[in-house]
TrEMBL record:
This is AD domain-containing protein. InterPro entries: AD, Gemin6. GO terms for biological process: spliceosomal complex assembly; spliceosomal snRNP assembly. Residues 110-198 form the AD domain. The lineage of its organism: Eukaryota, Fungi, Fungi incertae sedis, Mucoromycota, Mortierellomycotina. GO terms for cellular component: nucleus; SMN complex.
């Protein structure tokens, strides 16, 4: 029997139920706090949304003024400003840099919904809408087969395998392609881009 997935004692179900909850990711000599946006179940990379108050001084707790050492472990991806002039950062912390992870308050009333977090992070609806993702997969497979390019996929396998060399993962965009051959990688990305422009 396969060992159950765990992340600092939390199961996948625990993580899913706690998306949007206040959390703290601890690194060597530093930490990031905010709202849990997601954890990649394969790479154990943590994505945290941080609220930046207007007029804050620089400092890591606010997600600003990161040192080169901190950036090597946690990436300050993007700052967004909502209509109410709140600024937000998405901080990415890789598994190798993590020394600890915990949630701050189980009864915290200030949790964010997944929809609120997607809005803050400005994730386009098309990237997370299951119907649109399915349509993109079907369109990609149909295009490849029309060009007589060998392709394998199934309802159980979300990945589209092209000639056993390139692999297109959801949400089936140009940057979703994984391929060791650089020439083929660019060709597949180009075909996907052309498909989206039609």
């Amino acid at each position: 029997m396969a060992e159950e997935w765990r992340f600092f004692g939390f199961t996948l179900q625990d993580i899913h139920s706690k998306l949007g909850s206040p959390c703290v990711a601890t690194l060597v000599g530093s930490e990031y706090s905010g709202y849990l946006y997601n954890i990649d179940p394969e790479t154990y990379t943590v994505f945290i949304l941080q609220r930046l108050c207007q007029g804050q001084g620089q400092g890591q707790d606010q997600g600003q003024g990161l040192t080169q050492e901190q950036v090597a472990h946690g990436d300050n991806i993007e700052t967004n400003v909502k209509e109410n002039h709140e600024a937000w950062d998405i901080v990415v912390v890789r598994q190798h840099a993590l020394k600890g992870f915990e949630f701050q308050n189980d009864s915290e009333p200030d949790n964010l919904s997944v929809e609120e977090m997607d809005s803050i992070a400005r994730v386009p609806h098309a990237l997370i809408d299951p119907a649109k993702i399915k349509a993109r997969k079907e369109g990609l497979v149909a295009m490849l087969r029309s060009k007589r390019i060998p392709v394998e996929t199934s309802a159980e396998d979300a990945v589209v395998h092209i000639m056993n060399s390139a692999h297109v993962h959801p949400p089936y965009l140009p940057l979703s392609v994984e391929c060791a051959n650089g020439v083929m990688l660019e060709r597949v990305r180009s075909m996907i881009q052309e498909l989206h422009e039609e």
